[in-house]
Amino acid sequence: MREHRDDAAAGVHAAASDARFDVRAAFAEHGPALLGFAVNALHDRALAEDCVQETFLRAWRARASFDPARGSLRTWLFAIERRIVLDVHRAHARRPRLVPQGEHPEPVADVRDPLERLGMVEALARLSAPQREAIVAVHLHGLSYAEHAAATGVPAATLRTRVFAGLRALRTTLDEMDATDA
Amino acid sequence: MHDDTPDRHAELSAAALAGELTAAEEAELAALDAARPDAEAERAELAALVARLEGVEAWDDAEPSDPLAARIAAIDDAADVAAPAPAIAPAPPTAPVAAPVSLDARRRRRRRLLPLVAAAAACLAIGVGIGAAAFGERGGEDVAGAPGALGAIEEVDFVGAPASIAIDGAVVAHTWGTETVLTIEGLAAGETYTVVVVGEDGTEHASGAMLGSEVPVDCRLNAAVLREDVASVEIRTSSGDELAHADVVDV
After folding, report:
1. Cis before residue B93, ω within 30 degrees of 0?
2. pTM for this prediction
3. Which of A90, B37, B128, B244 is deepest in the core (most CB within 10 A)?
4. Nearest-neighbour CA in chain B from A11: distance (Å)
């Protein structure tokens, strides 16, 4: 499974004169996580791929403004994608939904803040894949550690440690996003 | 990046958050907590975080497709084409802009000029700067995609301008609206020109303004209307007369 290097300069050529943004390298490094965010935020694969393309297009156009000293390339790309996903999500939310005649959806009693869900999806997407997989299995799908260990071959003790570290990372990422949005 | 280094305290804390502690493990965790005063508070914080995860019902581990990789690579190819910026000699001064030859049926549509909110233009004269990325994108290696695809450069033909004015135009669909990319030679120096994106319902969306120059003008302008709702793009003189327009295909 791919591990991301959170090196601030990853994906960016050393040629500081034009702060050249290496699109291919950045996509290879961060594309899967960015797509994971968009797919799970929008539940629409084609739209999610459009959002990822738009993210890299905007990043390429704004490449001169990227400053590795202010944050990692991964954080910068996610910040760009967050705005795009949010715009798309809002545009969809505004569109009326057609339902078959005679079908009356029940009022939703538990209306969660969609921004809260988008924030959590982004934070999960930014985790390492092994951490996210373990958290999803235990805390979203409700598997026990023993069941997940049997399914993956990873010892339960390792999975427990991995989930705890993942939850800490999730908290840190959400704090960073809150600080960025503030 | 993650670290799987064995950590008994973390291991037991994770089990506690999942409600899986045995009695023996519970006692062991209590002993470990006693040596680290902030452990229980952190666990409570993470328990609240776990509760918030309920808003995410499932997770789709999507991997980028080959077509998406190709679309991203096309951005890089465009970048290679764009640098360095080509040196283009200044165009000769032109005569004042004449009135448009004709106003077609689009002129009869209901028109309501939206406020200039969200409208922006970024222009420069090619002879004095870079900013020529658009040329790279509009060369032979554009960002791939059919008209209406997000980020794809879509060439459009501007018609109706005097022969002394050469207009090279394209539009780009974005999630936030429609971008018009223009390269114009022959505009009267110092004259103001506006760009308006006309919606399919006839609504006019202001997209910004530019000054004519003795050198070619390279300009990108944004309008707050989705590409799927756009019928045409118009360039107008300061008096409001049409200089040229481009009809776009339905998407």
Report:
1. no
2. 0.58
3. B244
4. 12
